[in-house]
Amino acid sequence: MFDLQPFFNNRRSNSLWDGSSDLLGSSSNLFDEFMNSNLSPFKVDIQEDNDKYLLEAELPGVKKEDIKLEVDDQYLNIMVSNSEEVEEKKDNYIRKERRAGSYSRSFRVGNIVEDKVEAEYNNGILEVILPKKEIEKDDGKRVIDIK
Length: 147
What we know:
The protein has a single domain, classed as Immunoglobulin-like. 8% of the residues lie in helices and 44% in strands. The chain has 1 helix and 8 strands; from the N terminus they run βαβββββββ. The protein has one helix spanning 27-38; strands spanning 4-6, 44-48, 52-58, 67-71, 75-90, 93-109, 118-122, 125-131. It has a 4-stranded antiparallel sheet with strand order 1-6-5-4, with no helix packed on it. The longest helix has 12 residues, at 27-38. It starts with a strand and ends in a 16-residue tail after the last strand.
């Protein structure tokens, strides 16, 4: 059902969550994942339609040219890098601050048409449309050759 999954870092083992770990054996990891997802660098909403996925990422204050979006046969990567310099001069003091940073989110994708992925950035929201591949309908019947 879900071919688009967030890609989480596991603080304890530095491995990646693949959805196959059992709940009882990794109850502390489940808590860590919940906490990490709440502290992620930006929030993402994912919707699934019959023919596509719609991913909306909140990136307030980010310029379009500071966003890099990559997709391959396994992952969708959203990377943001920005830098800011503030200089303020008043009467007898000078304040000059610099800040730079980067952050990213990755999503495991499957069943999408990579060359038809579209993205648009407006008012701090990045919208990514990921069209699904058409899957042949299977009526469940098989013809068996008799030897």
